[in-house]
Design goal:
The complex is a heterotrimer of chains A (298), B (318) and C (325). Chain A has 298 residues and is mostly helical. Helices cover 73% and strands 0% of the residues of chain A. Chain A has helices spanning 2-14, 20-29, 32-49, 51-54, 86-122, 124-138, 142-153, 157-184, 187-194, 199-236, 247-254, 263-290. Chain A is elongated and about 75 Å long. Chain B has twelve helices and two strands, in the order H-H-H-H-E-E-H-H-H-H-H-H-H-H. A two-stranded antiparallel ribbon of chain B has the order 1-2. Chain B starts with a helix and ends in a 7-residue tail after the last helix. At the A-B interface, helix 6, helix 7, helix 10, helix 11 and helix 12 of A face helix 1, helix 7, helix 8, helix 10 and helix 11 of B. The complex binds adenosine-5'-triphosphate and magnesium ion (MG). Adenosine-5'-triphosphate (ATP) sits between chains C (13, 15, 20, 22, 40, 42-48, 61-62, 99, 182, 215, 281) and A (3, 7, 11).
């Protein structure tokens, strides 16, 4: 075993030089689905930024003369029960989706990382207390946790972000705790301690940077899930509600007009799927390009 | 083994206490009168201020949150899970009516998501790079991206409305009319299992690919065994180990999905109860649901950990 | 007619970094009841050549590009890789023991399940027979308390014990050839000697031919009748054990022998390692692969392609230099 590993190391040393970035780029961009995902993501972001220019109508504009219009040249995807243009609402719907997705992950990642870092670094009863609380939260469906929190806080974008963020903390805390436990065993951390570096210094300058790649990958891979949960909450009627455009509530609003105006529900669903699929594929690609060994754990 | 189980059970109880306490605490943050946890807003308006004060004292609302929590807990142990002002019924009774529906749905979804997901994963791994892999992987990747409530709606549109093959809503007990019950369950179960199926397939594929590179698989080939035997007897058990680990999480996932799916298909289960209770600020019901769901999730995790020993003889329970 | 003849075997790997010619035109043969040794440094293609004879190379990335493996008059490379003919040979006619005892047994199946399935497959035994026979085998390879240990799992055995289990498994169906791929690298020296003696005993008893693959010439000296020396995917010298030890002709063999402690030499003779590293098998030059490390090299070596094997006094050597001078 040892010999084989030695041989492989030798093999790797003697191969024609290929820098980390080149390997990364080759694996990452070498896959068609990843490219597809990147393109879709870029398009979404562009559309979100230039929504004002692209959208054919004002997405909040109620037009009672044009209620529930079928798709036509004038309204490509028809209009909803209040006569608002569905395509325009779809376009503006990207904004809350992306904002909720990234803000939630940011909150969850920051809080989860801090909790996991403290738990893993100090160990002992601190770890026990923190990780048991995390376990307790893990004992309950994320969506339901977010639902209860959102119900207490009330709807609206800010509260949804908090609710989803809190519900997503355990994932990050667990991974970070596990990473910290591994990294902390490294010689340089032990040496650093005996040299009298502060805990804070060691955590911030040595552990966090080393745990960064898996965290970034985890974050990318979880944005999709958060977007799905946000859509679910909006569908249940507690997320972002009309007149603001959120895809989940658009699906829900179209539910009663399913037979006559199927586009009302179908279109936002496809919009959700596309972005979640793209995010997942980019996340997978990142993981495999950075470190294929993470495959089993993330 | 026995000591291990007992240890895990004690741990489970601890986790449940923590979980219910956290939820209890969260609900205490409700802006407004804490009496709202026990009474509906209209009830409160109907009562005189003196009566309200008395109610507060009776309920112990003037005491600290810990005292109140343990009071609730003590009552739970005595079978008094509180009253739902919204449904005008006993919480325990409500839950015991709704629970079986969701469990039935969940068990079916869990079963199909595991069997179909794992099979897809095996096929993809064994035929790596061939078209079967491409199809299975794409299917799995798509499955984890579908908003399930939307899938439910689309299925209703196609199979319920357009084709008229399946009933679009409601629930019938399999003991009353098995055939009708099954027909009504097909779409909800598909929606509920699809996400877990996708992630099971993805995970099985990765772990299977890892396992078939191992030395002992080469040994198995050198014995002259057939590919089927090698995959099913030598590789599968090993590659299921990481899959089983996340199966506990799948239960969480499925419960979360049940909330949405019961809403779409108008199924009277726990998920809907929880949503209605949350929206109606019927906090005793929420608290009861949290406890029950927590128990189920924690117990499944325990079962998963024990089934480890069967898969992997290296695991020792101590 | 030899029992197994390998002719001009070529196995290449397509890797991210280029084409690895792991085995590049290897020929050897083994007769009935014979013990031969295949010797070479780590990474020279010993394992790959052995795996290729049974078509156990995973493809991709590996590919058997050329060659013949004639066993009892049939070319095994003509059979489809996992077809029924090939499968009946594997384990039944030619068995192989791998170099990593710690990872070569399936951790989730008991020893009995792993031996029993071979007996069922090749000898069509029923469960009861399988059990009796497996216990018998374990006793033969020297596992104490075999009746009880048979239901244990691999992790409950030590490395040496696992290798014994592997030997029992490999010999269970009475194969005509046993390939032992560095069976002793992962165990300590005492166990090493025990295992080799055990194997020698058993192959005598079962009339099995044995191929010992190793990087240690000392290991094969006592057991092998003939020796093949491999370097960078090719055989560079072959001959009887005595000839190789007493009059090595290839500079590489001479170098190898200098790092083996010998009893027949005066004490105090220094062991000298071969200078330099084995070559990278990607983009190999067409000249002799040993050239950069060779103390005997002449101009011809630098100008002409790698010399083919040529017969010198009953030995075969691939070298332009007459090292006897
Ligand atoms: N799956 C593979 N992919 C790429 N290259 C491989 C693969 N397997 C083997 N090789 C290459 O083939 C060459 C020969 O390998 P092989 O395992 O036969 O060496 P060996 O002589 O058995 O060495 P050792 O004494 O370490 O077992 C090595 O250089 C190795 O890098
Ligand atoms: Mg080898």
């Amino acid at each position: 075993m040892k010999q084989r590993r030695k041989r492989q190391e030798k093999f790797m040393e003697e191969r024609p030089p290929m820098s980390g970035w080149r390997r990364f780029a080759r694996v990452f961009f070498g896959r068609k689905v990843v490219l597809f995902g990147l393109i879709v993501l870029a398009l979404y972001v562009l559309i979100a930024i230039f929504a004002d220019l692209i959208a054919p109508y004002d997405y909040k504009q109620i037009n009672l003369q044009q209620v529930l219009a079928q798709p036509s040249g004038e309204h490509l995807l028809g209009t909803d029960t209040a006569g608002r243009d569905v395509l325009s609402r779809l376009i503006y719907g990207i904004r809350p989706t992306l904002i909720v997705g990234s803000a939630t992950i940011l909150i969850a990642a920051v809080c989860g990382t801090i909790l996991g870092l403290i738990a893993g670094y100090f160990g002992g009863w601190i770890q026990t207390i923190i990780m048991r609380c995390i376990d307790a939260l893990m004992g309950f469906p994320m969506l339901l946790l977010a639902l209860v929190i959102a119900a207490v806080l009330g709807g609206g974008m800010k509260n949804i972000i908090i609710a989803l963020g809190v519900a997503s903390i355990p994932t990050f805390a667990r991974v970070m705790c596990a990473q910290t436990l591994i990294i902390k065993e490294n010689d340089y951390i032990i040496a650093g301690r005996s040299l009298g570096f502060t805990n804070w210094h060691l955590m911030w300058n040595h552990i966090v940077p080393n745990a960064f790649p898996p965290l970034v990958i985890l974050a990318t891979m979880n944005i999709g899930m958060v977007i799905l949960m946000e859509a679910g909450l909006s569908f249940l009627g507690i997320g972002i509600q009309a007149p603001d455009a959120a895809w989940g509530s658009m699906v829900s609003a179209g539910y009663n007009r399913l037979t006559s105006n199927p586009m009302l529900s179908v279109a936002p669903g496809i919009a959700i799927m596309l972005i979640v699929f793209s995010l997942n594929m980019v996340g997978d690609g990142l993981r495999d390009a950075v470190d294929p060994r993470l495959r089993g754990t993330l | 083994m026995i000591t291990y189980i007992i240890k895990r059970l004690i741990q489970a109880v601890f986790i449940l206490l923590l979980l219910t306490f956290i939820v209890y605490g969260v609900m205490r943050f409700v802006p407004g009168d804490p009496l709202l946890m026990y009474l509906g807003a209209t009830d409160i308006q109907a009562l005189s201020p003196e009566a309200l004060d008395q109610a507060r004292q009776e309920l112990g609302l003037d005491q600290g949150i810990l005292v109140q929590y343990f009071k609730w807990l003590g009552n739970v142990f005595q079978g008094d899970w509180g009253k739902s002002f919204h449904f005008k019924a006993d919480v325990l009774l409500l839950i015991s009516q709704r629970m079986p529906v969701t469990i039935y749905l969940g068990v079916l979804a869990f079963f199909f998501s595991s069997t179909i997901g794992i099979s897809l994963g095996i096929i993809a791994a064994v035929r790596r790079g061939k078209w079967a892999d491409t199809v299975a992987t794409l299917a799995a990747n798509t499955a984890i991206t579908i908003p399930i409530f939307w899938l439910g709606i689309i299925m209703i549109l196609i199979f319920g409305v357009s084709l008229g093959w399946l009933p679009i809503a409601g629930f019938t007990s399999p003991f009353d009319d098995f055939w009708l019950s099954t027909k009504k369950l097909i779409m909800p179960v598909i929606c509920l299992m699809i996400g877990s199926m996708g992630s099971n397939a993805r995970l099985t594929r990765t772990s299977m690919l890892e396992v078939i590179r191992q030395d002992y698989i080469r040994t198995a080939w050198s014995k002259g065994l057939k590919e089927r035997v090698i995959i099913l007897k030598h590789a599968l058990k090993n590659s299921l180990i990481p899959v089983i680990t996340v199966m506990g999480l799948q239960v969480r996932f499925i419960f979360g999905g049940a909330v949405l799916i019961e809403q779409v298909f108008a199924i009277p289960g726990m998920g809907r109860l929880l949503v209605d209770a949350t929206f109606g600020k019927d906090y005793m019901v929420v608290q009861g649901c949290v406890l029950v769901i927590g128990i189920i999730v924690v117990l499944t995790n325990l079962i998963v950990d024990i089934s480890y020993g069967w898969l992997d003889p290296r695991v020792r329970y101590d | 007619m030899a029992l197994l003849t390998v002719e001009n075997l070529k196995t290449y790997f397509h890797t991210d970094f280029g084409l690895v010619k792991a085995v590049d035109g290897v020929s050897y043969e083994i007769n009935e009841k014979e013990i031969i040794g295949i010797v070479g440094e780590s990474g020279c293609g010993k394992s790959v050549s052995q795996l290729s004879t049974l078509q156990l190379i995973t493809s991709p990335p590996g590919q058997i590009v050329d060659g013949k493996v004639i066993f009892e008059g049939r070319d095994l490379l003509q059979f489809s890789a996992n077809g029924s003919e090939m499968r009946s040979i594997r384990g039944g006619q030619i068995a192989i023991i791998f170099q990593e005892p710690m990872t070569s047994l399936n951790p989730t199946l008991s020893v009995f399940q792993q031996i029993g399935e071979m007996l069922e497959l090749h000898l069509k035994m029923d469960k009861e027979m399988q059990r009796k026979h497996s216990i018998e085998l374990l006793k033969q390879v020297g596992i104490p308390d075999a009746e009880r240990r048979i239901d244990d799992y691999p992790h409950q055995f030590s490395g040496g014990m696992r290798q014994r289990v592997m030997i029992a498994m490999a010999l269970s169906c009475n194969p005509k050839i046993l390939i032992a791929d560095e069976p002793t690298t992962a165990v300590d020296v005492t166990t090493q000697a025990q295992l080799l003696a055990l194997m020698q005993n058993l192959v005598n008893q079962y009339n099995t031919s044995l191929i010992i693959v190793t990087h240690n010439l000392g290991v094969v000296a006592r057991y092998a009748e003939r020796i093949y020396v491999m370097y960078a995917g090719r055989i560079v010298e072959s001959g009887t054990c005595d000839d190789i030890f007493n009059q090595p002709k290839h500079p590489y063999t001479i170098g190898l022998l200098k790092c083996v402690p010998r009893l027949d030499e005066a004490e105090g003779t220094k062991l000298v390692p071969i200078e330099g590293l084995p070559p990278n098998l990607i983009n190999m030059p067409s000249t002799c692969a040993f050239l950069p490390r060779c103390p005997y090299s002449i101009d011809k070596c630098r100008e002409e392609v790698w010399p083919p094997l040529k017969r010198v006094n009953g030995q075969y050597v691939s070298c332009y230099v007459d090292t006897r001078r």
